[in-house]
Design a protein that fits this description.
Elements (H helix, E strand, L loop, with lengths): L8 E3 L14 H14 L4 E4 L16 E3 L1 E4 L3 E4 L7 H4 L1 H16 L7 H5 L3 H21 L4 E4 L5 E6 L2 E6 L8 E5 L5 E5 L3
Parallel strand pairs: 1-2, 2-3, 5-6, 6-8
Antiparallel strand pairs: 4-5, 7-8, 9-10
């Protein structure tokens, strides 16, 4: 609602948690309706993340669904799951984490987002953060991008690594939500999103 007219809105993945719209509460359905309406006023680009890769929007209006997006060579935007080299190599560990998480819930523990659960294991979480950043920066460097922006890790970051600026918008499911403002002059700024 606070975006200036004419500004492109890019959603960097995991905009929905599941591909089944019947499981969405009314507030989530309203948010999706708002995105459809926005796409009639401005360009709306939805980068598919690992949670919404199978999601098919009913009547998408003009929402563009893409695997990644770029602003020339100034910025490459991806969800980040493709840069996560830890998960594919450790499928057994991920399945084990999911089973432990479900078992906790069966025993009466609070249901929390899987990312919040993984954060309870700091070493594993730091390894995942590092792999996403290193691989994203390497991709940007190999393809001539000055900066790369991701999500996926649920950890907002803004740093320069190996001469490439790496930005991560974090997650809308935990704490403060962030967005990346990219100005026409090339300025990139990670900003907290007002509630």
């Amino acid at each position: 609602r606070s975006l200036p007219a004419g500004v492109t809105l890019v959603l960097n993945g995991d905009t929905v948690h599941t591909h089944d719209p019947r499981r969405y509460p009314p507030a989530h359905r309203a948010a999706l309706d708002a995105l459809r309406e926005e796409s009639l006023r401005r360009r709306v680009v939805w980068i598919r993340g690992n949670h919404d890769e199978r999601y098919v929007m009913e009547d998408p209006a003009r929402v563009e669904f893409v695997p990644h997006h770029n602003l020339g060579k100034a910025l490459f935007i991806a969800h980040g799951s493709d840069f996560n080299s830890v998960a594919p190599r450790n499928r057994v560990l991920i399945v084990l984490f999911r089973l432990i998480h479900r078992f906790r819930i069966v025993l009466g523990a609070e249901a929390i987002h899987m990312a919040a659960f993984v954060k309870r294991f700091p070493l594993l979480y730091r390894i995942m953060l590092s792999h996403v950043a290193v691989n994203a920066v390497q991709y940007a460097k190999e393809n001539g991008y000055a900066a790369v922006a991701c999500g996926h890790t649920h950890c907002a970051e803004d740093r320069v690594q190996d001469g490439i600026r790496y930005l991560n918008t974090g997650a809308w499911t935990e704490g403060t939500s962030y967005c990346l403002w990219a100005a026409d002059d090339g300025t990139l700024e990670l900003r907290a999103v007002p509630d």
